[in-house]
Amino acid sequence: MYRSHNCGELNLSDINKEVTLSGWVAKVRDKGFVIWADLRDRYGITQLIFDEERTPKEIMETAKGLGREFVVQITGTVIERTSKNPNIPTGQIEVLVTAIKVLNQSLVPPFTIEDQTDGGEDIRMKYRYLDIRRNPVKENLIFRHKVAIEVRKYLSDEGFIEVETPYLIKSTPEGARDFVVPSRMNEGQFYALPQSPQTFKQLLMVGGMDKYFQIVKCFRDEDLRADRQPEFTQIDCEMAFVEQEDILNVFEGLTRHLLQEIKGVTVDSFPRMTYDDAMKKYGNDKPDIRFGMEFGELNAVAQHKEFGVFNDAELVVGIAVPGAATYTRKEIDALIDWVRRPQVGAKGMVYVKYNADGSLKSSVDKFYDSNDLAEWAKITGAKPGDLICVLSGDANKTRTQLSALRMELATRLGLRKNNEFAPLWVIDFPLLELDEETGHYHAMHHPFTSPKPGQLALLDTDPGAVKANAYDLVLNGNEIGGGSIRIHDTDMQATMFKHLGFSPEEAKAQFGFLMEAFKYGAPPHGGLAFGLDRLVAILGGQETIRDFIAFPKNNSGRDVMIDAPSPIDEEQLKELNLKLNISL
Amino acid sequence: MYRSHNCGELNLSDINKEVTLSGWVAKVRDKGFVIWADLRDRYGITQLIFDEERTPKEIMETAKGLGREFVVQITGTVIERTSKNPNIPTGQIEVLVTAIKVLNQSLVPPFTIEDQTDGGEDIRMKYRYLDIRRNPVKENLIFRHKVAIEVRKYLSDEGFIEVETPYLIKSTPEGARDFVVPSRMNEGQFYALPQSPQTFKQLLMVGGMDKYFQIVKCFRDEDLRADRQPEFTQIDCEMAFVEQEDILNVFEGLTRHLLQEIKGVTVDSFPRMTYDDAMKKYGNDKPDIRFGMEFGELNAVAQHKEFGVFNDAELVVGIAVPGAATYTRKEIDALIDWVRRPQVGAKGMVYVKYNADGSLKSSVDKFYDSNDLAEWAKITGAKPGDLICVLSGDANKTRTQLSALRMELATRLGLRKNNEFAPLWVIDFPLLELDEETGHYHAMHHPFTSPKPGQLALLDTDPGAVKANAYDLVLNGNEIGGGSIRIHDTDMQATMFKHLGFSPEEAKAQFGFLMEAFKYGAPPHGGLAFGLDRLVAILGGQETIRDFIAFPKNNSGRDVMIDAPSPIDEEQLKELNLKLNISL
């Protein structure tokens, strides 16, 4: 038996008990005649004491030889500390060691195993097993476990069945981002790793499984943005005999459950907003609604004066920044520089100071009098003390720029609070999205999403105007999930493929099995998927999903700890009937 | 809203209620003036009734057009049936339909959607989504879900944390059975899919995670035996600061919990048997101990007489087959033919009838008198009425042959009862296994398994005799899991790799990251993995794991429903810097 207790549980009620503990030496303070060592395990830290008077000499010697991260087993007596530490549960006691065994030694770790470490990201990734010993990382992993438990609990209680779908599936030419897997038994043929279990969950609905879910890994071989991973985890769900309303209600319930159980937060309202409204009010299909700063469109009051910049613009739009009327000229110039950065791309910014005394002062006083500016204040909802920031130009671009400015200012002003949660359904997404480069439309969600009833005819005349039965769940300005009501009719699915530019042959080669399945009594169905990595990070009040993944990959898709991917043997390639195109 | 109730819940207490149901038309009986239809969903079957007197004409017309597996939504009134069906929960009522909507039509399904179907395995696999509509398959998937829930519940309550480990890991030359995954971002380099998360769970122990589990997919690209899958699911576990005893206790607890919660079975005893004893008593490292028929070794009493076959044999060993003394000559000849089949491989079989009257009659009466045979009966534990079957020859081979005979006879005699559960730990496995072809030893479990304390020296002198801290859990003659106490010391791990024929360079290239990790305070640790597919099948009282997998692959590793694997585009190959070695 390696331990009678863990390192996080002993307290004053255990005084005089003989205990056995195992763990890592976190810290040693050697005062010569007395030595203290902090012993750490998953559950906490317990202080050990060795002293010349009470501790046998050979144990004293061993204690003197202890290094950081040595693994030791000790037996000793729980005694009261003279100098107590109120910050930890075991802070009232220490253990007077009567026996010690070094279970394993340790080299000096390449960074300190403390909440605030001196190690940079790269070194911590290479020695991730040491990083996991640190409280923040360990707690994140335990937190993730708890979220997954509550997800499974809620959905199971709602009658959902977790069904495992295959990882070795069919590669589709459309799947430019598929990871492929050569098969040894079927020479020259490849599986693909799923980007999502989409078609399988639909087949489960055709199979009558009714309410399906799965917490499942998905894979995407694409250039990684800062916070993406080639493998990521989804909470994947599907229901049959449901309308959009049924699905939103179930997953509103799940989200409320998680916020309640995990964060102790009761959400008052769970608003819904159309995609069009979200774009108009926030310039963004995943608005953070924890704070106001809604867009005010100023075309009607700002155009047809003598300010050419606005007159030429498709859209003139502003936000009221709370309490920012006191910004200095220098601060405002810095803000203008910020919106002009290539990442934002605005040409410039007009501002109005709505001073605390009610006076209005703008950068365009030449063109607008205070009556005009008072109109602007009214439309943007500005109050005395606010700063109104106005951008103009092409409607879509200007909205995106103003959205970026809104988020930046909210962050600077501390309005994006980690422990405040404001979920939002964004609904009525467009069915199709125009690829500006190719001029072709492609599915905004995926090709199985159904259009709103009665809008099918629009596909021929005005494809961009067709709305879908598609919805996203947004939490604090992050999309944490999305889904749709699916097409369940073979003919409509064929029509959709046609509009997406698939030839009948291509559609058949890729999705023939699904269209075939639809011929045998497919029920109406729909579903959604939540990104677990992102959800956990947001619930944890943090930004970076990597901090909630045990063994993440870096931005090049590499696992630097195990050094993968890596070249493989010529022999192994040959067995797969493959060779490298260009030897590297 | 598609339904107010499901098809499994209405009964006499709902009489006169107006209800809305959705589901599949399972059966239609059209008597002209009255039509009955069975409506089926995941929850059951409800009988619908349409009749000329009470049902509007156009609804009658629709009812007449209903085909099998049409998807319909109906509204109607719950009424009492005249002819009740006591076999189903809804058998007391039927629904008089007042409105009907055909939600989707169906072609005639290629096999009947009934508990006993007319479809063969191949066609059911191709249309797996229809197969899943059948009760037995649907119930198996729901059963699997329940098992997974109980596994997670038990382990979480025991303080285990489910941690997701990566799927895109490092390919190792040793991993001849690795599926590899070419990386687009890292040209010419490959990931591998994990055969198990072995090294990651060990790194989690080094990371202080203490008690880890995961229900996780694993992958093996090898020739598939009848009941193997290229992707399979493991309950994977690891613990730190534990000895073998601690691990056995936890997973005995898990197994008891599952049998209790899932099957309502309380297991009395949970015996442990050494590998050597299992081989000696049952000729098998996964003995089915639900019935006796233990091996009796007869060398001492059967050799040194005049029967040359026995005298030349390394081992003479028999079993008592209960109640089989009445076998006819013909039946016994058939049994002899059975053991002579190439799959079993015995040269012949000696038998003794221990007749009900106490007399003994054998096929070797020429060499043995009844005193001799009485000795055999005593050693094999035969009672009057039993048949003693004796095989002889090379010890290992003979044991394997007699084990096959024992299992066959137990099956024939109905001794292997689906709803009787007898778990068993087999412990003290050999560390190494001799590959008879190459003459080299390889790790019986895996290279991270630790030898029994004090046996390291034997590695040089008698490698085959070294026992490991390794154990298997056997249930009803099936290995459902296994594990070991791991090596946690860099030097011992290096020694082990050396004995397994790795050069230091090979060991470093493949497992350098693990050996490096061991230098930073690796705790003593160990664990095990259960095969979930097999476990679920056995708990379900069935043999075939495929019946408990939603979308299984066939013996060639193909998914015949989606037709995977399949060739991929030249373009896609090129992007991966690959080409086919030989065009196919």
TrEMBL record, chains A, B:
It is found in: Cytoplasm. GO terms for molecular function: aspartate-tRNA ligase activity; ATP binding; nucleic acid binding. One of its GO terms (biological process) is aspartyl-tRNA aminoacylation. SUPFAM superfamilies: Class II aaRS and biotin synthetases, GAD domain-like, Nucleic acid-binding proteins. It catalyses: tRNA(Asp) + L-aspartate + ATP = L-aspartyl-tRNA(Asp) + AMP + diphosphate. Residues 198-201 are annotated as: Aspartate. Coiled coil: none annotated. Residues 151-552 form the Aminoacyl-transfer RNA synthetases class-II family profile domain. It is an enzyme of class 6 (ligase). Its EC number is 6.1.1.12. ATP binds at R220, D221, E222, Q229, E479, G531, L532, D533, R534. It holds the Pfam family tRNA_anti-codon. GO terms for cellular component: cytoplasm. Belongs to the class-II aminoacyl-tRNA synthetase family. Type 1 subfamily. Homodimer. This is Aspartate--tRNA ligase. The gene is aspS.
